[in-house]
Specification:
serine/threonine-protein kinase, 2 domains, binds magnesium ion, ATP binding, 8 helices, Phosphorylase Kinase, domain 1, signal, receptor, alpha+beta, binds adenosine-5'-diphosphate, Transferase(Phosphotransferase), domain 1, about 300 residues, Ser/Thr_kinase_AS, two-stranded antiparallel ribbon
Length: about 300
């Protein structure tokens, strides 16, 4: 169920968004507020949290989550409206991966220890656009704190959640290794790869840019169920198509290699978000230095 949204202006001069959860969505509000309550979550690529409140609306209670407001809306809508240059892509994809890397990390940028968090519902409608081309992760309704003191039993019912379209094969198959907290990060990396593919599909360095499509958009209906996704992703080992013309641009080829490594069938073979973030730093640095004439990632 989509929660209700209001946006209004406060006198402090900052646009804020109010996400209103009805009573039935209390658990989701509670979880999202608890995730945001950790000050170590603060990062440029993570939605800025302001406060959470319980409100009385008539006889009913409702629950508010107040955050920064981003007028450009979510990434899916942005990509349907805009075509990206290579530079735009680098900014967008780079900010997304740095957000996921921070979420998964044991440390903050300043080196203090933090509890890693798995988002568990990474998709283009759970990412907002800030300052034109930067991504911000939002919707922590089913995010999970990967507290090392918790046991596999604590995570027992945590295996199969999220959105079927973006679910990793091991999630579709209900074969997540709950003994290892890295498993939750590996699922996020798979979903992140699908979003990176969405971003790549709208970048004009590949030549003609087709109209925006969700991952598996030509194969499934609007809200595919797990059964359908199991057939495609698990049994058929299907992934979104990477047409050969995308590989003509060297930077794009490097990105596509990265995407392919992130959606590997074997969760353990996937790159970590941290490693992907480092690759993006490399692409940006090399691009700045060489204007992408003949960058050293060419094999
Ligand atoms: N802070 C925000 N600023 C602008 N739009 C937002 C903001 N947060 C959410 N939205 C919009 O509302 C949609 C749903 O938000 P989300 O947090 O994902 O709620 P839900 O739990 O209902 O999926 C997003 O896809 C986006 O379009
Ligand atoms: Mg959402």
């Amino acid at each position: 169920m989509e929660n209700q949204f209001n946006d209004f202006h406060l006198t402090r001069g900052m646009d804020v968004a109010v996400k209103i959860f009805p009573c039935e969505e209390y658990a989701s509000w509670k979880n999202e507020s608890q995730i945001f309550a950790d000050a170590n979550l603060k990062h440029d690529s993570i939605l800025q949290f302001l406060t959470a409140e319980e409100r009385h609306s008539g006889l009913q209670k409702e629950y508010w989550l107040i955050t920064a407001y981003h007028s450009q809306g979510n990434l899916k809508d942005y990509l349907s409206r805009n075509v990206l240059s290579w530079r735009d892509l680098q900014k967008m994809a780079g900010s997304l991966v740095s957000g996921v890397a921070h979420l998964h990390s044991d440390y903050t940028a300043s080196g203090s220890p933090k509890i890693p968090i798995a988002h568990r519902d990474i998709k283009s409608t759970n990412i907002l656009i800030k300052n034109e081309q930067e991504c911000v992760l939002c919707d922590f309704g089913i995010a999970l704190r990967l507290d090392p003191s918790l046991t596999a039993e604590d995570f027992a019912n945590s295996g199969q959640v999220g959105t079927a379209r973006y679910m990793a094969p091991e999630v579709l198959e209900s074969r997540v290794n709950l003994e290892d907290l890295e498993s939750f990060k590996q699922m996020d990396v798979y979903s992140m790869a699908l979003v990176l593919w969405e971003i790549a599909s709208r970048c004009d360095v590949i030549g003609e840019v087709k109209s925006y499509e969700l991952p598996f958009g030509s194969k499934v209906r609007k809200q595919p169920c797990m059964e359908v996704m199991r057939d495609i992703v698990l049994h058929g080992r299907g992934r979104p198509e990477i047409p050969s013309n995308w590989l003509a641009h060297q930077g794009m080829r490097f990105l596509c290699d990265t995407i392919t490594e992130c959606w590997d069938h074997d969760p353990e073979a996937r790159l970590t978000a941290h490693c992907v973030a480092e690759r993006f730093n490399l692409i940006t640095q090399i691009d700045l230095l060489s204007n992408s004439e003949n960058p050293p990632w060419v094999r």
